[in-house]
Amino acid sequence: MLDLLRIGKKLAELRQKKEHTQDDIAEMLFVSHQAVSKWERGISLPSIDNMCFLMKLYSVSLEELLCLDAIANDFDLDRLFQEHNRQYIIHEVILNKIKDIYLQDIIHLLSKEERLYAIFLLFDQNQSISGELWPRLSLEERHMIIHKYKEGHIQLDLCVLNQMMTMSEIKKIKEIKK
User: Fold this and answer.
1) Domain residue ranges in the chain
2) Residues 53, 28: contact at Cβ < 8 Å?
3) What confidence tens digit (pLDDT) does each residue in 72-127 have?
4) Which residue of 123, 148, 163, 169 lies most exposed, with the fewest beta carbons within 10 A?
């Protein structure tokens, strides 16, 4: 997944190194200065043709231009979501691409929609709900997970989660098994 904010910062940095203005780049690429501004603010990306031109202009590879070679492992948890696209961070955390940061470390920073996205992404990646994550989930999220288990959509390690569940959750699981 591409981090548009990081790419935007990279585009602005490369442009400034060459001492070009946004208007200069816009004129070279036959686009508006607003388009260049949107790229640099992480709102959109240049077209493939424009990326090829920018790679030549800045003498960088596509990997460098798209920051694919720069997945940082030194994320500061306090600034994590300020400097990067939120969906990108959730995605990278679920895929374990950010060293030493796990979903249970950031779940409290997520909106309700982002939390659901993260949980469904966990299931999509065939990852289980850990004993460290379970207590940080809301009752609604726990019930949704139990319901998905009941429908056979997900697998749960009940031995681990059994130690974390409330009595009503254990009762619900026992009812599911019947």
Assistant:
1) 4-65, 72-127, 128-178
2) yes
3) 555 667 677 877 788 988 998 998 888 778 898 899 989 999 999 999 999 888 88
4) 163
